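One record is given unchanged without comment:
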Amino acid sequence: MTELLKIRGFPAFILVAFINAFIDLGHKVTIQNTLFKSYDGETQILLTAIVNGLILLPFIMLFTPAGFVSDKYPKHRVMQLSAVAALLITLAITACYYAGLFIPAFALTFILAVQSAIYSPAKYGFIRELLGVERLSEGNGWIQAVTIVAILSGIVVFSALFEWMLAGQSLHGPNQILPNVASLGWVLVGGAALQLLLTLRLPALSQTDPRQCFSVRDYVSGRSLWRNLAELASVRTILLSIFGLAMFWSISQVMLAVFPAYAKEHLDQNNTFIIQGAMALAGVGIMIGSVIAGRLSRHYINAGLIPLGACGVALGLLLLPQLNSIALCALAFLLIGASGAMMIIPLNAMIQFNAEESRLGRVLAGNNFVQNVSMLSFLLLTVTSALLSVPSTWVLWLLALVAVCGAIYAVILLPQALVRLMATSLIRRRYNLKVLGFEHLPVSGEGTLLLGNHISWLDWAMLQMACPRHIHFVMERSIYERWYLRWFLDLYRVIPISARGPRSAMRQVRKLLADGRVVCLFPEGAISYSGQLGEFKRGFERVARESGDGPVPNARIIPFYLRGLWGSRFSRSSERLQGFDNRGLKRDVIVAFGEPLPLDTRAETVKQTVAQLSIHAWNEYTDSLETLPRAFIRTARAAPSEWALTDLNGPVLNHRRLLTACILFSRRLRKIEEQNVGLLLPTAAGGAIANMALLMSGKTLVNLNYTSPEHVLLGCAERAGVRTLVTSSQFLRKLEQRGLSFRQLLERMNVIILEDVKAGIGKPESLLTLMQAVLMPVWALHWRYGGRLIWMKPPRSCFHPAARELPKGSC
């Protein structure tokens, strides 16, 4: 996840999100603590609920304007203007604190929430603009974690300062309390000023959209509200995700409003800092869960976390009213928070992924609207229960019942997602998955036919992990009918197919595509025996043919390529290749999705596209590899005494001695001024040491083929800009004995003889370097000798069109 910090504008963005939440929470905590010190029982619950209601109302009232502003204007500009508003509002709040004006300070909670209501859709929409759809889960995980850290910081800082400023004082009423804690206002003002400065560093990623227009008449009459709500309901995935988020945050609001009174009545706890600290562990849990969800959803959306998180929330709420100590309640809050984060991170990502770019702001504002209507409704029920003197324990049990019903619904709605998560948790122990082309996957409601290569028995799992939508796999009927698999395959809604009756399966595929579902076919028809692309059979072409069922509307083909599973124990590779799996190392697997193709695309075209994806996947994999020196250092330190290198008549070098030799030579070769260095060496121990030593010193290698004519090598060296040549006097003598002379090449070069380099290395230095190779931390060796290149390759000049006349193998 730290890779996101390297993206321009992202660090400033997450700091803005942190400060905005910190400011909102700081003022809220100050008001709530003032109420806690001034009132008891039902009055306290009632006023606390009203405070929360004032925070929620702007998100309901400004649903349509907030979405319009976020869609029409650049989102970074909206956040900048919101930051200006926050600075002015916090100045007014500070003035109210000093004047002891509790009612105006109480009312400014509403004004501060108005600023947040405008800011929120722009913030979440900016995630998609800044990171792209393939990193939505990671981005949401970061924002959620940072927001929770801000909330925790606000609770701890403002509660601690609040108690410290009032220590030993006997004050009655909120108007007497506020002037004694007025200094807290300057913390809010300072945060708002810093937020404004940071928003100025946000990159401009979107432009003004002149097509968007706002109708005050429609807004006042409610027509725009119902129109926007209808847009939310048009995509079932978005609607269900919003309902899931609304349920979690509504339960959380009531839980946080009721628990202080519950702690006062049943746990004999009166210290606001301890009570707020216990509830703050829910925030710690959300932060932990956000990090976990981000790691489990890197480059894709892990929908299987939704039912798991819902079950965890239900369990925590069932435990909460049964616990008899504040410490145990704090652990329950931790469980609720962590489980909730694992649920809300994929839900937020699903909303952003499935929303069209042109109406993303309205969808996100609609998400705020539904959530806040739900939270306000729950708070009204809380107020009603307080007026009716309903015990706080009963309210907590009611929340637990609602959470249990929600968890059951999530499991029933997404049983395959839960099974997928369990399979994923097992697979991730041995495989690292990376998804390319995630943005090519269609949103919910669009029929999608996935076509690609078939490498192993785990292909289905990798594809489903990479795709946020459920995939209906087409499977050979003989495998489907095995009794120990059929129950699972039926649960996963697999489509069986046989050579004798493929038409019925294809009709089923057509129907699913027409219904907007995702179906996967492996056109090769069987798992590969060679690891290479086989013939793509034409069976899938029947899906696109118009028959009695009519054409399939809005359905497209998405080609894919799976890299990294050939050689695993689940592939049909040789036992020798599969033996590498027994070493316990994780495999790097890539699922690459290509651009959509028409449904009537021919098999040859699909295969060609998949072949192009294989090149893209391989290049992406090699670009992610660590440098050769880093890999060598890590291997040498992992097995220092194992055999590493030898010559036909030379000594056997273990990894420890080889690493020491490479470090010694790299110190000398690092002094070469030129970047490109030529090598004229045999494939022997000395040549291997010289190659690695040059790589460790950060040089670009140009290995010259001594079997080529001298004028060819001179041409290669000239085109590569090589002026320094590393070679061996013993090797040159052997070449002369074979009639090969490179006198002109040596005369034009600054020649470095390896034997001379070795002679200049004394025993004390060798001993100290050996100790360095053994004792220095691996990270320090990487930093000093890790090099800069990913692998050895000829210079670009050797591939220049002017060099085409050179024989193959010249350099």
Remarks:
- The first strand starts at residue 431 and ends at 436.
